[in-house]
Design brief:
Two copies of one chain form a homodimer. In chain A, 44% of the residues lie in helices and 9% in strands. Chain A has twelve helices and seven strands. In chain A, strands 2-1-7-6-5-4-3 form a seven-stranded parallel β-sheet.
Chain lengths: 308, 308
């Protein structure tokens, strides 16, 4: 479809660190992103798990610039750039292209509910047209439990027909494998890259022609998830998947974003990481202790994280 | 509770005009707001019906500045300032205070679903604390069909206990009178001003101690709605309410925001008004004709609107 190298594999919707004043902390952010890259995990910064919609566009641009300024490879970045406001999405997407990001993950505008595919097509089309960059690679983001505005097969079909180079793939965070498989069956052969929304479906996704996964728990368990991506055809892949599912299962027993941050705070020996922006709330001390105990019981570690 | 004059009566979540390039049109906006004030209707700019979440913070600040610059009275303005991002809400609320707005209508952060009242309390509290202005009057905005994040009695109780001066009231757009009545019963006597989310409940709201209504259809039917507010104790109020319900019923048979704009385009003789920003779509010509025919059948007019 094009000769720009495509993003593939495992990406982390990188959690965003905040100071005590709730301002984003670029130093912690760069440290975390560098660690994730060292674990063979790409950077889907500004995702749902990044509290991205709790950040202004200016704050996101500043964080992205800090990553690129620190020498991290923008080709491995797929920032979330879909906002409610067309002008915000255009501004953030254009900035991502300016600094050379390998792709962007784009939520539909999510305030109005029950909007038509015509309206969503026009939303994505206006961003693509206004950014006007042949290198743009858009991954549409289906996450109905949160955004409540779904990405349908019909919408992707229309977008691909009109923008075959720019519409590169999707992330499916609906949690419904049959939906993911529907997109794979319809579009994978045409070069549309489907990322599962969690490692729960990583092996299945690869077996049916998918491109990898973008998963909350890649923030804390990156190398084992990336290893399954690298070795999914090998013997033992199912056992690897089962182990990943156990660790994810622990995190899913807690509110996910605060739990990811609590694990980073503990294993990175950096208590400030536990801070979340409202409307989220941090784990209670009792919840944190329970999480760490459950992880310890699974011999969970985060090698190489500590030592900022 | 305080001696700052409170906003009361009927307000319009003013629809936002866009040019052919989808940029907000400040001239049409000023014209429309001036007309609404002349019809005895206040300006709840940047509401749901304003496509406010389809605008960037910069675009909203520019539009607000243009209204104030044109000499419209900021004491009659209650801009929507609640965004997903804390920093956006703070910036927009602080600007509204700087130019002297009589109040602000504040959505909860609406991206994350199922958030706790603790998290929502902290969201509103952070905005109030960071804006740090004793004149601030916050009206919390309950619109679960769209935002999907409700405002509960318990949340308002906590906010009022902590910020009795700043937490001034609410808009209830849930469409459930029993919920509105619950808030009136609990807080109206303490000076908490409850605005119904449409004129459908205006008479009931006044009879139970409410402060007025903030209604989509106040964009197009302002004077008759404001008249019911002024005369709700008089004989004939129920007949007035019934007439309002008929006109609202016509609009409710169409997608509301495009229908409001189509009516303004027709009765204001200004076709450009029909433009909406994605993800919304304008009425089709057939829908527009059907709307206008239904309104004509009800002898609906918009006196004084034409002639920009």
């Amino acid at each position: 479809m094009t000769d720009v190298p495509r993003i593939a594999g495992v990406l982390s919707p990188v959690v965003t660190p905040f100071g005590a004043d709730l301002a984003p902390d670029p130093e912690r952010f760069v440290h975390q992103c560098r660690w994730l890259l060292s674990q063979n995990v790409g950077l889907a910064i500004f995702g749902t798990n990044s509290e991205a919609n709790s950040l202004s566009v200016d704050e996101k641009i500043e964080l992205l610039d800090r990553l690129v300024g620190a020498g991290l490879d923008p080709a491995r970045m797929m920032p979330g750039t879909g906002c409610c406001a067309l002008t915000d999405s255009v501004r953030l997407t254009a900035h991502a292209m300016k600094v050379g990001c390998g792709g962007v993950l784009m939520l539909p505008p999510f305030y109005y509910k029950g909007v038509s595919d015509d309206g969503l097509f026009r939303s994505f089309a206006e961003v693509i047209e206004r950014v006007g960059d042949a290198r743009l690679r858009v991954y549409v983001y289906h996450i109905p439990p949160v955004a409540q505005v779904p990405i349908t097969l019909g919408l992707v079909e229309r977008l691909l027909a009109r923008y075959p180079a720019q519409v590169a793939g999707m992330k499916d965070s609906g949690g419904d494998w049959s939906n993911t498989k529907g997109f794979l069956d319809a579009f994978a052969k045409a070069g549309f890259d489907v990322f599962a929304g969690s490692e729960t479906f990583l092996l299945q996704n690869m077996r049916y022609g998918g491109a990898g996964c973008i998963s909350a728990t890649a923030n804390v368990h990156p190398e084992p998830i990336a290893r399954l991506y690298d070795t999914w055809r090998a013997e033992g892949a199912d056992a690897q998947q089962a182990r990943l599912d156990v660790i994810r299962g622990v995190f899913q027993r807690f509110p996910m974003i605060p739990a990811l941050k609590a694990a980073i705070a503990h294993h990175g020996r950096d208590a400030g990481w536990a801070t979340v922006r409202p409307p989220l709330v941090a784990l209670t001390p009792a919840q944190s202790s329970a999480l760490i105990a459950e992880l310890d019981a699974q011999r969970f570690t985060m090698p190489g994280l500590a030592g900022r």
